[in-house]
């Protein structure tokens, strides 16, 4: 035998210690990653509600004769004379599912006497107010969001924001 050569490599105990250390690090990091994912989902839901508010404002000003669209699918329908819909394809279905949140639009009172819109909504089919809610799905987040034609986005933790077309929902806090 030559001198200086011995068994090379790791012992079973050394490998088990390394695996245990990796397990401890993973167990400490996992909750932080889940919280970051939920925060990202909540930010996406807030952005979706802002997008619906902006789309409703543009729709009312350019196509709805001062009235709002009764559904997300109407906001996604382009004007008859061409162009794009008022909202992106990720939010043009009733309801829409995005980033572990379900986004729904509830139309308020019918706009009696309102003319037809530029994208095919018949006369009287538009609404005078609306409510948009964002409800988390499994693992999506803990806050529920809601907004209306006023543009303020409200949230409640652990319970859906009540549907309201006027003012602040009871118990809901505005997003700053």
List the main descriptive attributes of the protein structure presented here.
alpha+beta, 6 strands, 17% strand
Model description:
This protein is an alpha+beta fold and 176 residues long. 32% of the residues lie in helices and 17% in strands. The chain contains two helices and six strands. It has a six-stranded antiparallel sheet with strand order 1-2-3-4-5-6, covered by helices on one side. The longest helix is centred in the N-terminal third of the chain and has 51 residues, at 12-62. The chain is elongated and about 95 Å long. The model has no long low-confidence stretch (mean pLDDT 89).
* Helix/sheet category: alpha+beta
Strand numbers in spatial order across the main sheet: 1-2-3-4-5-6
Helix content: 25-40%
Largest sheet: 6 strands, antiparallel
Overall geometric form: elongated
> What integer value in Å does the Rg equal?
26 Å
Give a summary of the structure in a few sentences.
By secondary structure, the chain is an alpha+beta fold. The chain has helices at residues 12-62, 72-76, and strands at residues 96-98, 101-107, 130-136, 143-148, 153-157, 173-174.
